[in-house]
Amino acid sequence: MYKAQLHWQPIALLLLITMIWGSNMAFVKIASREMTPIFMAGLRSVVAGLCLYIWMKARRIPVFPSAVICWHGIVTGILFGSEFGLIFVGLKYTLASRGYVLLYVAPFFAALGAHFFLAADRLNIWKGAGLTSAFCGVVVLFLKDVGSFSFEALPGDVLFLIAGAMWGATTVYIKKYLVQLAEPIQILFYQLVFSAPFLLIISVIMEDRVIWGFSFALGFSLFYQCIIIAFLSYLVWFVLVSRYPVSLMHAFSFFTPVFGVLFSGILILGETVGPNLIMALILVSLGMVLVNYQPKPSP
Description:
Layout: H1 8-22, H2 24-31, H3 37-58, H4 67-90, H5 96-103, H6 106-117, H7 125-141, H8 149-152, H9 154-177, H10 184-206, H11 216-241, H12 246-251, H13 255-268, H14 275-291
């Protein structure tokens, strides 16, 4: 049963989760110094999927309730794997701080997709304003005053934009085909377990040597990505989703790109954050608020 308000304990947990997510790309960049990105993403799904499987069995949660759910789970796993494969590769070519801003255009791709594929989720004036704000944020990020780096970062920036589109497509697909059939924790499991073979096969095809060293930094980065991010933080998120209204929960996701620029970009990697990036972050964050705004119905 949902609780109508968030008390300080879940608020603290949600802020901690968004801080954890905000530092994730820094550890991906650190690990990519010694491991190829697509193999890393596949390994992350394998380890986190195995941990989640053990947890589901301990809680007696059915893994595959029906064949239909399984097939939809395969599709979501491929979409999920494509998204993170693009993110991990994109980080080789662009800054983590830019990546967070570009990735979080995903809600706007989801809003556009929902308008065409979900009958009960049409665009309105607030979503239109949010889409416009987000688009302006992306344009600001690519303004000429970012200098020559904009051309060097272009491949990575494009990959992040495509990853955002894949994230939005995954959201729409889940809402259309899975949300009424499976529990949120089952959907997370399908995304992890079915993305793993997809990513590892792509890695075999595209990457020659997957690892060329194993330092403490690589080991900790893998632990952080596999256990802290993909298993524990996602698990806690979905447990909270089952207890509190989704609208309250998603309000806290707006902090992730902010913490991403602060922790991954500035504090951990020491990236330079210019005024155009700050303006882009503000516009994209404003767009997220507007897209998710639900006006109260007239009495």
